[in-house]
Design a protein that fits this description.
The chain is α+β, with helices and mostly antiparallel strands. Helices cover about 25% and strands about 20% of the residues.
Length: about 775
């Protein structure tokens, strides 16, 4: 049978050439709306690890899809997705298009594609072998497909498949579920505009797509057929995590029409309104595209899964009322606490309030009352290391965000640090290793070639002894800040002392944080570039010691003291950037695959490095930060298919780009200040939710004039390279005089604040 007579089409995508991507770039102009400057393809080919995904969804909405393909280089796609249940491209259900009545077709097929177009609010693609055109547009919890058959076919149909669930076909509707785990299901209710001519179910014995003899209308694969005369098939569907009935209500509430353009027009308006909260003027076309693409990606997560006043709780294993406060989930805190959450406090304070309340709900619904680490639709997955959800509350409170029960937050944060194991990728009460850290002030490491004796240490992630310790020190500082805000002075003092325990891992002879064994001895021999196995996970995490050398975000002033003052601190920063890899790149990346985007030993492609370029400011050399940020943005962030240097984990790296292009960055979440870098545009206006504006004007800005000569904040001279959160939310104007050569005096005297001092020297227990 000719292939074009039997084609089960499966999903979204296009193998577009680099030339076509370039034509997209060149088609834009100064007059475009913000959403027209978004390129969902940016970064769709990864340098080494996970690429970005061209996600189609409304901002922070439950309904989202992306083409089912490995990355942009894929020649084929695998079924049209109906819902992404996780940001890493994990789809539930698969929609296929049938151009034949043949009964023996696979559940999901791979096919070539062409003329793909993706905007945040709309998707379209041509299937050249089948001569079919497909378009898609989402609402918040529902969506619409439009399928056009451009040639005569003996039969036209749509087929739906679930991997782990059951579907029911009845008249012109398909409904059912797919199980995501033991307790969480995602439900669908799909309806065609016109009545079908027949419905079929895949027989479990013959595997044929036909109605079984017993007329059972249920199965894992079902189809609707519309006969040869139907040129256009229109489908609308709703998704729910609660029930099929709720999925039906969702689509009937949101989509009363089968006119796709109407749904897409609303989506476009919502995206323009959202992205327009930051207005940029001037700059290069590519920079404007990179900026708004990055801003778009920060709105992919977290997602609002409240449905008509209820939400499904994976922790409670049932639907619960939201009591008028939307429930948000799908967050990887290790990646997002650094910049995504601080950006949301600026642009979406009410949403961030609801997100923090969602975190408290998750903790409240678990027997331990521990704060989550990676909350997802299927529940908290306890990934990476640290308990950085504490910082979300400390940062919000320090910046004046109201409406969150800070007493409850402190209570759960305290329980988390007092009771939960610090072992990475685990959820368990404290055991020997964490208790050792409680007693000695550091997480013990294994000596070289020493066998692991504790079965609960994961074979892949290992102990990560230094990374775990440094994460805990920062978490203790954020806990101290919460205690201080609430007037728990003695507890605040004690936690602040614990936040200084990084002294115990600091090797004064080398200037690095160095793992120690259980006998308080530094592990030797030791290579700061390569020791620690795959991803350096024996001692660090995904990055080597050169990255974690700077992982004291809460107390850079004390780190400068440890290193011997500003001059030595700058020298060490410079050496991080200038020390080349000791081996070929393929050898290095075979051991350190996450450490991409290298500038010397610095890695732009992984989250623990994001604050490092701004540390020169703390040592009295803001001009070095200005130079380096400009270089990093030019080198690693471009409007092309390989325009990001590493994993884009839930907006973490994109939020870094947004802040850095604005010209400032929140180096220490939990501290209400921003460090000034260098602006990327001559004028930026942040439209605040209070109807106030904060404007940044860079006089004489150009691609060469990247150095700040002087500054004024609200008409007053600003001689420091940082400002407060209150300076933004109060509205006002920051004016920067720019030049081609550095003014090494500006901002050199008053460094940004660091953690509070303790009354006595750190106590080495």
């Amino acid at each position: 049978m000719p292939m074009n007579k039997l084609r089960l089409w499966a999903c979204l995508g296009l193998f577009v050439s680099f030339a076509s991507c370039s034509s997209w770039v060149n088609s834009l102009s100064d007059g475009d709306d913000p959403v027209d400057l978004v390129n969902p393809y940016m970064g769709n080919i990864s340098h080494l690890l996970m690429p970005t995904f061209p996600t189609v969804q409304l901002p922070n909405s439950m309904m989202r899809i992306t083409p089912n393909r490995a990355d942009y280089t894929a020649e084929a796609i695998e079924g049209f997705p109906l819902i992404l249940t996780s940001h890493r491209g994990i789809s539930a259900f698969a929609l296929s298009l049938l151009s034949s009545s043949n009964e023996q077709v696979p559940n999901v097929c791979s096919f070539i594609y062409d003329h793909e177009s993706i905007q945040p609010y709309r998707y379209s693609v041509d299937l050249p072998e089948e001569d079919i055109s497909v378009a898609y547009a989402p609402s918040e919890q529902s969506a619409i497909y439009e399928i056009k058959y451009n040639t005569a076919e003996p039969d036209r149909g749509v087929m739906l498949h679930t991997d782990n669930g059951e579907l029911t076909v009845q008249d012109n509707t398909i409904s059912g579920y797919q199980a995501l785990n033991d307790s969480v299901r995602v439900y669908i209710y799909l309806q065609s505009e016109e009545k079908n001519t027949r419905a079929t179910v895949r027989d479990s014995v013959s595997q044929r797509l036909s109605m079984p003899a017993d007329n059972q209308n249920k199965g894992t694969t079902v189809a609707l057929f519309f006969g040869p005369g139907k040129e256009t098939i229109k489908l609308r569907y709703g998704i729910s995590y609660i029930s099929v009935e709720q999925a039906k209500q969702n689509v009937e509430r949101e989509i009363q029409t089968y006119e796709l353009d109407m749904i897409a027009k609303r989506g476009r308006s919502l995206w323009n309104s959202t992205l327009g909260k930051i207005e940029i003027e001037g700059g290069t076309e590519q920079d404007r595209q990179v900026f708004y693409t990055s801003l778009y990606r920060t709105y992919e997560r977290m997602i609002n899964i409240s449905e008509n006043g209820n939400y499904y709780s994976a922790e409670a294993k049932k639907a619960l009322p939201d009591n008028g406060v939307p429930f948000y989930t799908d967050d990887w805190v290790w990646d997002t606490y650094l910049a995504v959450h601080p950006l949301r406090i600026l642009l979406e304070p009410q949403m961030q309030q609801h997100i923090l309340q969602s975190y408290l709900r998750v903790a409240e619904q678990t027997p331990e009352h521990w704060l989550p680490t990676f909350p997802e639709v299927t529940g908290d997955t306890h990934r990476m290391n640290g308990n950085h959800a504490i910082s979300l509350f400390a940062d919000a409170y320090a910046k004046g965000l109201s409406g969150v029960n800070i007493d409850k937050a402190y209570s759960y944060a305290l329980k988390t640090m007092q009771e939960k194991s610090l072992l990475p990728w685990t959820r368990m009460p404290k055991r020997e290793l964490t208790k050792f850290m409680d007693d000695k002030g550091y997480f013990p490491a294994l000596n070289i070639d020493e066998k692991e004796s504790y079965p609960y240490v994961t074979r892949w992630e290992k102990r990560q002894a230094v990374a775990v310790s440094l994460a805990a020190y920062y978490d203790y500082w954020t806990l101290s800040e919460l205690a201080r805000h609430l007037g728990h002075d003695e507890e605040a003092k004690n936690f602040l002392k614990k936040s200084y325990d990084y002294h115990k891992l600091y090797n004064h002879q080398t200037g690095f944080f160095h793992p120690k064994d259980k006998n308080n001895k530094f592990i030797k021999p030791f290579d700061y570039e390569l020791s620690g196995g795959l991803g350096a996970r024996d001692y660090y995490d995904e990055n080597n010691a050169y990255t974690y050398r700077w992982d004291v975000k809460h107390n850079i002033a004390d780190l400068i003291y440890l290193m011997g003052g500003n001059e030595k601190f700058i020298e060490n920063l410079d050496s991080t950037l200038r020390k080349p890899l000791s081996m070929s790149r393929w050898q290095f990346y075979s051991q350190m695959p996450d450490q991409t985007g290298n500038v010397g030993q610095f890695t732009m492609g992984n989250e623990p490095s994001l604050h490092i370029p701004y540390l020169y400011v703390y040592a009295g050399a803001p001009w070095r930060t200005q130079r380096f940020i400009h270089k990093l943005l030019d080198t690693w962030f471009r409007n092309d298919l390989m325009g990001l240097p590493g994993d884009e984990d839930g907006g973490g790296m994109s939020a870094y780009v947004v802040f850095s292009m604005l010209g400032f960055y929140p180096t220490t979440p939990g501290m209400p200040i921003y460090v000034i870098g260098t602006p990327r545009f001559p004028k930026v206006t942040i439209h605040l939710p209070t109807n106030k504006r904060f404007t940044i004007i860079a006089k004489d800005w150009s691609k060469d004039n990247i150095y700040i000569q002087s500054a004024k904040l609200n008409g007053r001279t600003l001689n420091r390279a940082w400002f407060r959160h209150s300076d933004i939310v109060s509205g006002g104007e920051l004016v920067l005089e720019m030049g081609a050569t550095p003014n090494k005096e500006w901002g050199s005297v008053e460094p940004p604040p660091s953690a509070g001092r303790i009354a006595d020297k750190p106590i080495f227990r």
